[in-house]
């Protein structure tokens, strides 16, 4: 277990980087607007640039991992994180900043799909859900780390646009600090093995047996190599994208539709509006910049707690029940947030406020929403994408589902700045509540439980 814990810890640093790179933008938007003279549309493009890279990275990574290995793709992602952090902080124009964020997005997309599949391929079935859920804990830890760093830098500098160390604005340091965990991630990856399932797919059975012996013991290693070899030999060829088509019916495999649905609904409930625009969101309804940044930290801490609760339950309760509970919880809390925002009033000075106790109601409901998400759809979607596809199509299935996930993310996130006014906020959150309700029925009909099943037993 010590060896398994070590390699899971290293692999999930990718999740931390995913979260940090996604969350760091939250406190930098005033700086971007001032430095690059951005309007609302321009801000949306600069914030959403990471999503262009993420969708491409997710699609390429799944297929690339079948060719060069899971660990090699994670190393490539670490390099992209490092370069992106340095370049984004130094950007002298919107164009350079967008290019830097696209590079970071390539790393985020790759890490988002490869870390979960790597973890699922090196962990025993009985504890696979628990250990795969660490990915979401690390994503939220990365987000919270970015929120804390942004808050501290803005606080000590006197604002996100104020000059700080060496005369550079605080918002630039928010990006540069990301280079530290990126470098740690890159170095740590040299100390973990390649996925044994990838090694078998490349005919390197002895190397796979060596890794599995360290993971499961020698007797179990021999049996597992034979089992993996058998699951790959069923279609008599190396994994490829066309495997996603059922050769009997000529239609897309149902398991792929289930994966795409899980990936897309996770975004259509609006969670990344909280991740990317939390500060802007709360300022739009009357919070100060300082209070808005503090609210981000509170949401992050609660989210970590919710992920830990999911880790404790996922291998006992199962994946599907948690998804259903989460969908129901998000529907109610998102509808409450929408109602609270619909009561916003604009004063004579143009300031927007929520009357009476509605601001407190909105804050409580929003945090209950993040708890609902992070004890269900947050970690469970990644757990299921990492384990639900058969060995033969795991890389290809992840490529398509990951691409769909980031396209949905982009659609929600890029459109939000133009809606970040009181009437628009109420309508937007109503839409998220509707998608949360639909996701409940989608899970009931399309999603099959995977708890306790060996990866070689997955069918599609």
From TrEMBL:
It is a multi-pass membrane protein. CDD domains: MFS_XylE_like (cd17359). It is found in: Cell membrane. Keywords: Cell membrane, Membrane, Sugar transport, Transmembrane, Transmembrane helix, Transport. Coiled coil: none annotated. GO terms for cellular component: plasma membrane. Residues 7-451 form the Major facilitator superfamily (MFS) profile domain. The chain crosses the membrane at residues 43-61, 73-92, 98-119, 131-153, 173-192, 255-277, 297-314, 321-341, 361-385, 397-420, 426-443. GO terms for molecular function: transmembrane transporter activity. It comes from the Bacteria. Pfam families: Sugar_tr. NCBIfam families: SP. Belongs to the major facilitator superfamily. Sugar transporter (TC 2.A.1.1) family. This is MFS transporter.
